[in-house]
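Standup, Tuesday
Yesterday: got the pipeline producing structure tokens again.
Today: sanity-check two examples.
Blockers: none.

Example 1:
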Amino acid sequence: MKLYSHRQAPNPFRVTLFLAEKGVKVNTAYVDFMHGELKADEFKAINPFQRLPVLVLEDGTAISESCAICRYIEEMNPLKPLLGQTAKDRALIEMWNRRADLGLLNEVAQVFRHTNPAMAPLEQPQVKEWGEANRPKALATLAIFDAQLASNRFVAGDRYSIADITLFAAINFARVIKLQVPEELGNLRRWYSMMTERPGVQAALQVMKETSSA
């Protein structure tokens, strides 16, 4: 297998977190989308949507979308399940994972893509007003997760899951738009501190640190 990833982007980082937690190592190639590498014919043949990450299997099958990649990794490595073990668990994890993905990571991404001048060549048209409109939405979503974590150790209940991975990746990415978890969201801050102590998270952050300085 070969994983096409990125040094800093949040969706590739989600897969890095997932792999680190599962203890799975994959041959990884880092693609620099800021310099047009995603638009090269070679990469478009792998993923016509020109997005990262992409996992290419031994038979040439290309799997894009971070959650689809994580599902494949889970199926091939069922120990330490991160997608749930029962129908109820899987449904709740999927629900909270999508909320973290669409309700926070996407909102942070909209702020970044539409307000950062460096993203102008990739985001056409770049609408600053739309980007700024998503900032209060992201803060409101953080409050919802804080309430959920008031009675749950992890995002989707008592077990660590992909929902925690997506939320952590979103909050970590929010630093690029200078958005931090407010002091009053104590449950979320407690959870984030606990996350940073996990060996898998530390390993993924080390990968990000090493590749960002490569």
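Example 2:
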Amino acid sequence: MKEQTKNITVNRKAKHDYFIVQSLEAGIVLVGTEVKACREGKANLTDSYGRIKNGEVWLVGAYIGHFTQGNRNNHDPHRDRKLLLSKREIRKLDKSVKEKGNTIIPVRMYFSRGKVKVELALAKGKRSYDKREAIAKRDFNRDVERKIKY
């Protein structure tokens, strides 16, 4: 049986700005109105990143909007959220992040069996010439596909 996943949001800027070295799945600690807002699609991962504090991984800078039917007890949309990983995964991430140029970025947020999950990536930042090279390669491939089509 195939596992069903439904994307909430995808960080499209991540693949443009970073080389993805490794990716892993993490659970996320949310309050009820945040889950409902995610179901409405009110989430954004742009400019967010992961940080390791006191042996825990936190998602910083992610935006989950207010739930429309929420009351005055609605959540803060920009709060830091704890990510759920095993100790072994956290140690491995911590070791990798201490290397120069590596960072933790969220690639996408999705529902898996009714639970909100975040796909994290250990990434290395791209230089501007790497970005230009990737754009040129993509345009070249697009032109070749068009010419093959006709």
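Quick observation on example 2: The mean pLDDT is 87. The chain has one domain: 5-149.
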